[in-house]
Amino acid sequence: MLRCRHRDRGGWPTEDAEAIARARDGDQDAYEVLVGRYTAPAHRTAYFLGAGDDAEDVVQEAFVKAYRALPRYRDGAPFRPWLLRIVANETKNAVRGRGRRERLALRALDAPPADDPVLHAVEEERRRALLECMRELAGKDREVVVCRYFVGLSEAETAAALGIARGTVKSRTSRALSRLRTRLEDASMSCQAAVVVGLARCAVVSVR
Fold first, then answer.
1. CA distance 36 to 33
2. Cα–Cα dist 206/134, whole Å
3. Residue 131 belongs to what domain range?
4. Contacts of 100 (CB under 8 A, 6+ apart)
5. Which residue from 57, 144, 145, 135 is spatially nearest to 98, judged by alpha carbons?
């Protein structure tokens, strides 16, 4: 994995556009700034889309491919969704190659135990139920939920990352959350989609 090396603060490019321009000109340090800036969301994307323990390898390969693709990067386009689209594609390739496209990592939703063992047991059951419901979603629906709520992308960024229309993101998100809510209610949890979103955001914190 490319790593950021220490340098005087004044030497770092502060904007993505500046770092990209310098990286295109062969400045390896400038690209390392981008690597350091976006490794965390790239890792979460790969992890939640099924890479699991292989997420680090997937992300490393994605950054290498992104570097090679910089000449084709459209100036002015947001870098994060462009990068995460490469990560998502690389994850799909890796998961397909292992025959584990539907796998989600259980450890992703681990959280520190609650002080109250009863509350801890309840929360643990809810996390497990959420993961089971996530597994039952169609792959395309799961992708938008991961991007929107586990990685925290906007609708526009999710559309760019997955290569689909913004309206498709909205409809798939609505459908996926509705199905999650129904499945959770069928599991006697009586919770709304807002609970799903809240748990997903907690999961993001737990893997940082």
1. 5
2. 18
3. 106-206
4. 50, 52
5. 57
Beta strands (DSSP E) in 29-119 are none
Q: Is the pLDDT of residue 190 over 70?
A: no
Note whether 53 and 45 are within 8 A (CB): no
Residue 17 domain-assigned? yes
pLDDT in tens, 34-47: 999 999 999 988 88
Enter the pTM of the model: 0.62
Number of domains the chain contains = 2
Tokens standing for 169?
């993101």
Given a contact cutoff of 8 angstroms between Cβ atoms, the answer to whether 22 and 65 are in contact is no
- Sequence-separated (6 or more) residues with CB below 8 Å from residue 17: 75, 76
Which among 38, 71, 98 is the end of a domain?
A: 98
Q: Structure tokens of 7?
A: 């340098």
Q: Is there a domain that residue 4 lies in?
A: no
Tell me phi and psi for residue 118, to 5 degrees. -70, -45
